[in-house]
Amino acid sequence: MSVLRCIKCSKEYPLDKIRYRCDCGDLLEVSHDLAKAGVSRELFDKRLGTLKWPYSSGVWRYKEIILPIDDKFIISRPEGNTNLYCSAKVSNYVQHDNLCLKHEGENPTGSFKDRGMTTGMTAAKMLGAKVVACASTGNTSASMAAYAAMAGMKAVVFIPEGKIAFGKLAQAVAYGAKVIQIEGDFDDAMALVQEASKELKMYLLNSINPFRLEGQKSISIEAIQQSGWKVPDWFVLPGGNLGNSSAMGKAMMELNELGLIDKIPKIAVIQAEGANPFYQYYKGGFKEFKSMKADTLATAIKIGNPVSWRKLEKVMKWCKGVVEQVSEQEIIDAKAIVDAAGIGAEPASCATVAGIKKLKEKGVIKEGESVVGILTGNVLKDPDMIINYHNGALNGLKSNYANKMVKIKPTLAEVKRVV
User: 10 Å Cβ neighbour count for 14?
Assistant: First the structure.
């Protein structure tokens, strides 16, 4: 029912052979025979809330259009089933009422990566892999290490030295991965892990892996199901390696073909100003893609040479989507608001909220349009940045919404003074 298909020349390959690229050099994606999928809203609704494995997973609930595979291969925690939050505080900040935030930080290892890792690791088991590998700015390594431990596989992680939040690094170490720090940034790590995986027969689980993105499709499918199959006007999410936004678009294309949705939502991808190669490509009319040296405190999207840019180009043209950039100040201020709303998220997640605010101010998002923003990671992924922000210790940036800690003498009078 499914094959690997090149996104450029459409050449097809079987699923049961390890392959990440076409012979022409471009990326592959999993292509399903949707006419034979036999799915419906009723089928997915029947599985919603079930305790039956594997359908208790917010990924494997949609198994027929994610990865139709024998259950014996599935590695699941389970993942997904993340909540939608409608916050008056956040809505007031962005000046838009019809807004919900889907919090992927509620996944088992604290980020959306678990949705892709369950399918990627399942494919690894199906293909007989013994060692899995990835390059990571943090979330991918945490997720892969956890799922590899569950599957009984060895995990090897390549990270940029000194450029990964400790909340994420700690997870990879705790779950037993072999962590290799390299001198360079994420893009250097990505180049090296591809070379090493080929030479050392390690199964690569970055978003270049087509099975990874199939799992990540479930974010938008689940959001629509949670809304009673009512499609929002906008999905807004951060853009780093661009796999998540590509997966979201692929999901919408497939749901549209299946007749499970009645309109096509627009997708807005938000990049940090210091890591914005796809924004520049979009602004240039998709004429020439150029990589860059990325620099942003939102480490999860600190990527200057994203793997999935060509996949996302196809998506943006199909849904008439937009790409926006936001500054470091806009990101950290949006984060302070999301955190203070009791929701909380890592910096890259809050590029979403900063982007919604900017798009509303520009009139791109219209009054009354429904918006679902994706928060990609847990608030504790980067705790150092939180404390530095509220203490006014982020160089060159203002703590506009600081919640400063207060030191007092241990007396009731002092408590009365500061409370």
Answer: 9
What range does the domain containing 322 cover? 84-110+213-390
308 within domain boundaries: yes
Looking at residue 167, its pLDDT comes to 87
**177 Cβ contact partners less than 8 Å away, ≥ 6 residues apart:** 141, 144, 145, 148, 155, 156, 157
Which tens digit of pLDDT belongs to each residue from 365-390?
999 999 999 999 999 999 999 999 99
The candidate with the shortest Cα–Cα distance to 339, out of 300, 303, 280, 387, is: 387
Question: Could you tell me the CA-to-CA distances from 405 to 402, 408, 419 in Å, in that order?
Answer: 9, 10, 12
At 344 the three-state DSSP class reads coil
Q: Is 155 inside any structural domain?
A: no
CATH number, residue 106: 3.40.50.1100
**Residue 404 forms part of a structural domain:** no
10 Å CB burial of residue 156 (0-12, 13-18, 19+) is buried
**Residue with token string 């199909």:** 318
Give φ, ψ of 176 to 5 degrees.
95, 15
